[in-house]
Amino acid sequence: MTDAAYDLIVIGAGPVGENVADRAVQGGLSVLIVERELVGGECSYWACMPSKALLRSGSALRAAQRVPGAADPDARVDATAVLRRRSSFTSGWEDTGQVEWLQSAGIDLARGHGRIAGERVVEITGEDGSVRRIEARHAVAIATGTTAAIPPIEGVAETDPWTSREATSVTDVPRSLIIIGGGVVGTEMANAYADLGTTVTVLSRGGLLGGMEPFAGELVADALRERGVDVRTGAAIASTVREDDGSVAVDLEDGTVLRAEHLLVATGREPATKDLGLASIGLEDGDWLDVDDTLRVRGRDWLYAVGDVNHRSLLTHQGKYQARAAGDVIVARATGGEVDAGAWGVHAATADLAAVPQVTFTDPEVASIGRTAEQAEEAGLRIRVVDYDLGSVAGASLHADGYTGKARMVVDEDRGVVVGATFVGQDVAELLHSATIAVVGEVPLSRLWHAVPSYPTISEVWLRLLETYGRPTA
Predict the structure, then answer these.
(1) Under a CB-based contact definition with an 8 Å cutoff, are residues 419 and 369 in contact?
(2) Prior bond of 364 cis (ω within 30°)
(3) What are residue 255's DSSP bridge partners?
(4) Is the peptide bond before 456 cis (omega within 30 degrees of 0)?
(5) What is the full per-residue pLDDT of the chain (474 aa) written as tens digits?
(6) 230: number of CA atoms within 13 Å, CB side?
(7) Rounded to whole angstroms, how far apart are CA atoms 138 and 126?
(8) Cβ-count burial of 238 within 10 angstroms (0-12 exposed, 13-18 middle, 19+ buried)?
(9) Are 304 and 267 in contact (CB under 8 A)?
(10) Alpha-carbon gap, residue 311 to 271, rounded angstroms
(11) Any residues with CB less than 8 A from the CB of 46 and at least 6 apart, and which?
(12) Could you give the CA distance from residue 382 to residue 340 in angstroms, rounded to a whole number?
């Protein structure tokens, strides 16, 4: 027996779940969304928004300092003001506004922990301990995202380390911080806390920003070191311990001992699928959920997994892209409509495969789309790599004195199209969408010559990349 029924039940009310629910409601379905924490999810309260708010003041100040006459070169950010502004973007970790949006969109909300309790049935344990069983007439969508992974390093779990949540919601700036991990979270938080006046050490087993073009991590590491951050690549950690005075000691395998007030672990994410009742339908709790391009869990025609939880692309904007496809295809299947699930179809998340844009908001920023040179070669493509010094573009030299950066274009020689692009430099995030359109649209290089960048802007790098590649002949 069930207590109620909806056409669709969504577990997880972050931006991904909200978008699945919204598309389904717009298509005429009744929708219940279940959330055990704050409506708005990780991105709104502990990730995208607060982290970028922490970073913005420092990057804005340095940008002004790079233009003579714009700012005192010795000025520092006001840490109290930065934290206050950060908190404004999280609404003080209160979700009334998000709940009101759900209501206005016609989406019902259940507060509590949702678990699958059989085919098309969700059991919800409320905040008061009450339990309800709700039937999903057509589909259940899991949009629970990920949680920070704690590495199997001796003593780490016992030191009560920070994860990204603690790093983005801090109320007092620490004097010193050791960061384990050289990925996006580690490098962004190194930037943010260095700006706030913290003595920062970054420990990474490999280079920074692994998985991106190698020069991206190298330029970011150089910039961090110039700002006083102790960046140690190739660092192997033996153990950690919380000292009697409250500080954390990190022992490296080479015998070095580092100490700091706090330890931030930023070594990856794991799926938030524990205690979701997946075993009741023959799946493993705690696993990533394998889906097809319409975001339907393979072998379960009623179950969808959308966003980070399916491990296709751990990015909010890509999860929302998936959510629009998933919400629409759930409606189509529920109403007997046509399903357009082919490559680049309205119901397919094709961009996940090789056209994912990403910005790392370090200083310099790193903006990338599609395949790196290494990934393109591994995919069997015959490629040509075109590099250009971003600082030599006229718009860049006007943008900031001493502008340092690099651009790379990866070209599929057999089709004559861009399959990857990476930009590293101040404010390059706004260059990325043009590259995304080129990759997704598979725009021939011969046509890109007719997309004339305005002068003098940093976007003129597109012309320089094309010139370096070579102008087509008649």
Answers:
(1) no
(2) yes
(3) none
(4) yes
(5) 789 999 999 999 999 999 999 999 999 999 999 999 999 999 999 999 999 999 999 999 999 999 999 999 999 999 999 999 999 999 999 999 999 999 999 999 999 999 999 999 999 999 899 999 999 999 999 999 999 999 999 999 999 999 999 999 999 999 999 999 999 999 999 999 999 999 999 999 999 999 999 999 999 999 999 999 999 999 999 999 999 999 999 999 999 999 999 999 999 999 999 999 999 999 999 999 999 999 999 999 999 999 999 999 999 999 999 999 999 999 999 999 999 999 999 999 999 999 999 999 999 999 999 999 999 999 999 999 999 999 999 999 999 999 999 999 999 999 999 999 999 999 999 999 999 999 999 999 999 999 999 999 999 999 999 999 999 987
(6) 14
(7) 23
(8) middle
(9) no
(10) 8
(11) 164, 165, 168, 169
(12) 31
∠ CA 440-442-445, rounded to 5°: 135
Peptide bond into 453 cis (omega under 30): no
Residue with tokens 């700091």: 260
* Amino acid at residue number 434: S
Length reported for the chain: 474
Retrieve residue 152's tokens.
Answer: 């199997």
Cα dist from 5 to 28, 30, 182, 300, whole Å: 15, 9, 46, 19
What 3-state class would DSSP assign to 266?
A: coil
CB atoms within 10 A of CB 356: 20
Instruction: Name the residue type at position 54.
Output: L
Sign of the dihedral defined by the CA atoms of residues 320, 428, 169, 158, in that order: positive
